[in-house]
Amino acid sequence: MTVKIFDTPEVQDFLKTVAGFDQAGGDERAKQIMHRLLSDLFRLIDDFDVTPEEYWSAVSVLNALGQGTQFGLLSPGLGFDHFLDMRMDAADEAARRNGGTPRTIEGPLYVAGAPEAVGFARMDDGRDPDGETMWLTGQVRDTDGKPIAGAKVEIWHADSKGGYSFFDPSQSEYNLRRTIVTDAEGRYTARSIIPSGYGVPEGCATDQVLKALGRHGERPAHIHYFISAPGYRHLTTQINLAGDPYTFDDFAFATREELVIEGQRIEDAAEAEKRGLEGLFTEVVFDVELAATDAPELQTRHARPRAKESEEAVSEQAATAQV
Ligand code: MBD
Ligand code: FE
């Protein structure tokens, strides 16, 4: 038999007590948000007639997610990361801050402190037997097309099996992670290997949640970027390599039409030789436009738990993610 008690004074008073409204201490915003969150969930329990069995199985899922430090992985899967992007896009629009290469989500697999180089870096350690050579290059410009020298281009991507160094302990330290400072012409160039798409590990808590929704946990082949320069808006983005079956079916909802790039397969030995390569390779060109700003808070990435970014516990937490 279904009962509805949410709107009774007893439950409404109870919610205020639980959220600490009658307490002098604590944080006012935390109280307001917890009150709203609990109210929405209590009402949901009433409306869907959630059983005790269902409730406690949800608690188990949360414990499993926490034990695997998987909230950073489930978060893009449930669209939160993309929703935050949509909000930032809308805020930019409202403030008439337009122009520049579009943002898309950071994801949970950035590691701070990658080796830095000027102009050029090799990103792969040469130990991936299935790694196809990728020549990744581009120019960083302002919205008038003027090159930006000295811009910081941080790049990270997966190997030929979809694994990221650090989170995949079989890879060498900082494999496929580099920071390249643009040269006098605003250019950056990386020699690396073509990444594969990423798949959420079979059977993990995130996978269980996605399966319950009839969804998969696949991402198309992609390359992550942080791009920054003094006087310009920090950009968090990714490119997708065209032709992947998941390009427009990304479990993390990060694909944007403008960020899908067709790699050029180059078989000309002279072109390879010019780059110090042997045999065929794929060239991927990604030019970036940064929008100018005077606001210092727009020139840096926003804070979140990131592996190796600080000595704090949040950095440790990000570092232990089972992804
Ligand atoms: C990834 O490589 C990624 O970029 C995201 C968003 C989620 C899981 C793995
Ligand atoms: Fe990724």
Explain what this protein looks like in three dimensions.
Helix content is 28%, strand content 20%. The chain has 323 residues and is α/β, with parallel strands linked by helices. It has two domains: 42 residues; 249 residues, Sandwich (Protocatechuate 3,4-Dioxygenase, subunit A), CATH 2.60.130.10. Strands 1-5-4-9-10-11 form a six-stranded mixed sheet, with no helix packed on it. Strands 2, 3, 6, 12, 13 and 14 form a six-stranded mixed sheet that branches. A hairpin with a 6-residue loop joins strand 9 and strand 10. Helix 3 crosses helix 6. The model has no long low-confidence stretch (mean pLDDT 97). The structure holds 3-methylcatechol (MBD) and fe (iii) ion. Fe (iii) ion binds next to strand 9. Fe (iii) ion (FE) binds next to strand 9.
CATH architecture annotation name of the largest domain: Sandwich
Bound molecules: 3-methylcatechol, fe (iii) ion
Instruction: Give the termini separation.
Output: 41 Å
> Which homologous superfamily in CATH is the superfamily of the largest domain?
Aromatic compound dioxygenase
Structural class: alpha/beta
Tell me the strand order in the biggest sheet.
1-5-4-9-10-11
Number of strands: 14
Set down the secondary structure blueprint.
Blueprint: H1 9-18, H2 28-48, H3 52-67, H4 71-77, H5 80-94, E1 116-118, E2 120-122, E3 133-142, E4 152-157, E5 177-181, E6 187-193, E7 198-199, H6 205-212, E8 218-219, E9 222-228, E10 235-241, E11 260-261, E12 264-266, H7 269-274, E13 281-285, E14 288-290, H8 313-319
Parallel strand pairs: 1-5, 2-6, 3-13, 3-14, 10-11
Antiparallel strand pairs: 3-6, 4-5, 4-9, 7-8, 9-10, 12-13
This protein binds 3-methylcatechol and fe (iii) ion.
